Amino acid sequence: MIEVVRAGALTTVQDLGRPGLAHLGVGRSGAADLGSLRLANRLVGNAEGAACLEITFGNFEARFDPAATVALAGAPCPVSLSGRDKFMYGPIQLIRNDRLSVGVPTAGVRTYLAVRGGIAVEPVLGARSTDVLSGVGPEPVVTGMRLPVGDDAIDAPCVDMAPVPPIPAEIVLRVLPGPRDDWFTPEALTTLTSQPYAVSPQSNRVGIRLTGPALDRARDGELAPEGLVSGAVQVPPSGEPVVFLADHPVTGGYPIIAVVAEPDICLAAQARPGQVVRFRRERR
Amino acid sequence: MSFVRAMPAGGGAVLIELDSLEQVIGLDAALRSTPPEGTVDLVPAARTVLVVFDTAATTADRVVADVSGRQIGPVVERAGPRVEVPVVYDGEDLDEVAAMSGLSPDEVVERHLRPEYRVAFCGFAPGFAYIVGGDPALRVPRRSSPRTAVPAGSVALADEFTGVYPRRMPGGWQLIGRTDALLWDLDRDPPALLPPGTRVRFVAARP
């Protein structure tokens, strides 16, 4: 059992999400930074898709009873175990009643806490993922909550510490044009892929909102709502783009000028308010 | 089948654009019964079907080739389940809808009750169905300023669609009535009362 002593700004249970239900109006959800969730799970010998805690901007503390093996990946935070400093990106052995404290990240936004065996809250529609937009999934984690730990570890932890590249000060996201790049002027795609954008504080698991040069449309009129993917760069009437993350709506009515390459969506999920994001056009 | 075009939506999805909602319903039904290899999600919408696929299992070209080879029969032959939705027609916007369509409120109700409808697609919120097949006279625009909270069960009109709000949420559709049918229930499989393809009849209920 994990007893949450301090939940932080937003902590949710996340796994790989619930694909296959978009036609009912339910998005995939799941970890915003899937790469870090997978890494944290591997470090404790879990299947890659076991449920973890996604901690937003750190400031989290929990007590473990009984003993447990945990690992942290994603946004780097100072970590201490009952007062002793510990490292991220490697397994940490806890004894009964140990208190794990996660400080504020020095870069990035989201830190993943995996516990060997996985977090065993009741799945909703096949997944242990909280979708903050639709409200589907387990309740967000609050102080005082007790989270059950499962027993689905598949392997012994076998790595002391994983090498992880730092989150860069300036984030570069590769994009593939389309599906609706033809709704924009040819200059719009050039602007998107050459000018810096700043991450707005109004960013969350649904998407990161950007401020910067407007992307002009080549045509007027309204687009009928159509299916959306994670990483879609949507341009609302203001002209300033939004990059959709895990809890994006299943359909949207503003045109998508480009889509972030799948491996870079994890990086987008670590972009902090105020941080500079650049887009690079990727060849098909 | 022939479609208008296929557009990449990132490396792991293809957006198929079609001429009409009828074609969307037909293609979605065909793909749903036997999905292309590697399909992760199928998202029908007003004029498009989005096919999300596993890049380890297939490619965009193979998905498009599969879609091109499909035979889409007339929609009527693909009879879906039939659901009756009881409605109390006392919506806040009923008089305004009547004024916009040049009918009396009673005529609006009578015309809304007449056709058999079909769920084209879902979106906006879990279990929110875009229902088509309504009387063209009842085609009204969204409200110019959306409500911050629309009660659960509200039956509403916008463009060519009827929708039923599965829960209390913001919304800009014109409210004509309400139902006590449970649109979204996690203990039901599927949880949506009105998944795509469902045939729908609205029936008048007493307040």
Can you describe what's shown?
The complex is a heterodimer of chains A (284) and B (207). Chain A is 8% helix and 30% strand. Chain A is mainly beta and 284 residues long. The longest helix of chain A is centred in the N-terminal third of the chain and has 10 residues, at 34-43. Chain B has 207 residues and is α+β, with helices and mostly antiparallel strands. Chain B has four helices and 13 strands. Chain B is elongated and about 55 Å long. The N and C termini of chain B lie far apart (47 Å). The chains are: A mainly beta (284), B alpha+beta (207). The A-B interface holds A 19-26, 28, 124-125, 134-136, 176, 178-180, 224-229, 231-232, 249-251, 256, 259-262, 284 and B 7-13, 15, 28, 32, 40-50, 52, 55, 121-128, 167, 186, 190-192, 195-196.
Produce a short descriptive summary.
Chain A has 284 residues and is mainly β. Chain A is built from three helices and 20 strands. Chain A has helices at 34-43, 186-192, 262-268; strands spanning 2-6, 10-14, 52-56, 60-64, 68-74, 79-81, 84-86, 92-94, 99-102, 110-115, 146-147, 170-177, 197-199, 207-211, 226-227, 232-234, 242-244, 251-252, 256-260, 276-281.
Approximately how much beta-strand content do the residues of chain A carry? 25-35%
The averaged pLDDT of chain B comes out at 92
- Tally the helices of chain A: 3
Q: List the helices and strands of chain B in order.
A: EEHEEHEHHEEEEEEEE
Q: For the largest sheet of chain A, list the strands in their spatial order.
A: 12-19-16-17-14-13-20
How does the major sheet of chain A shape up? 7 strands, mixed, barrel
Offer a few descriptive terms.
heterodimer; A: 284 residues; mainly beta; 7-stranded mixed β-barrel; 6-stranded antiparallel β-sheet; 3 helices; 20 strands; elongated; B: 207 residues; alpha+beta; 4-stranded antiparallel β-sheet; 4-stranded mixed β-sheet; 13 strands; 31% strand
